């Protein structure tokens, strides 16, 4: 399942979307749509395993309607114990549709967590990748 919260700054230049997810009893996650992304640029993603942490090195993709992972693989092998931040290489990535959240390689029953998308209304240069 997926719940979504959204924050937009007063200047309307940045948007933060927090998607809280819960896996099924089998550990599988049914892909879910994250809305409000279209026309924005992906600047950063923060992942946080929940109180019932997923399997170590679980993977996340954020696919557009064409099936392209707009995170370009930077959300693979997420940690089960710590919050992690991932940045696109060099420049923010354009988002031309709503996104689908996909979580794979988890076997923990009812694992949960959050994925926080930091989006900008303008392209943004990125100095260095985060750990």
From TrEMBL:
Q: What is this protein called?
A: Uncharacterized protein
What taxonomic lineage is listed for the species of origin? unclassified sequences, metagenomes, ecological metagenomes
Q: Which organism is it from?
A: marine sediment metagenome
């Amino acid at each position: 399942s997926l719940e979504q919260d959204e924050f937009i700054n007063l200047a309307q230049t940045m948007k933060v979307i927090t998607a809280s997810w819960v896996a099924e009893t089998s550990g599988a996650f049914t892909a879910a749509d994250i809305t409000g992304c279209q026309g924005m640029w992906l600047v950063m993603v923060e992942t946080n395993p929940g109180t019932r942490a997923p399997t170590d090195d679980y993977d996340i993709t954020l696919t557009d309607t064409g099936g392209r992972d707009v995170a370009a693989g930077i959300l693979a092998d997420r940690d089960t114990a710590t919050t992690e931040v991932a940045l696109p290489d060099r420049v923010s990535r354009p988002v031309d549709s709503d996104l689908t959240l996909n979580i794979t390689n988890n076997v923990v029953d009812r694992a949960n967590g959050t994925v926080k998308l930091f989006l900008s209304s303008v392209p943004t240069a990125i100095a260095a990748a985060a750990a």
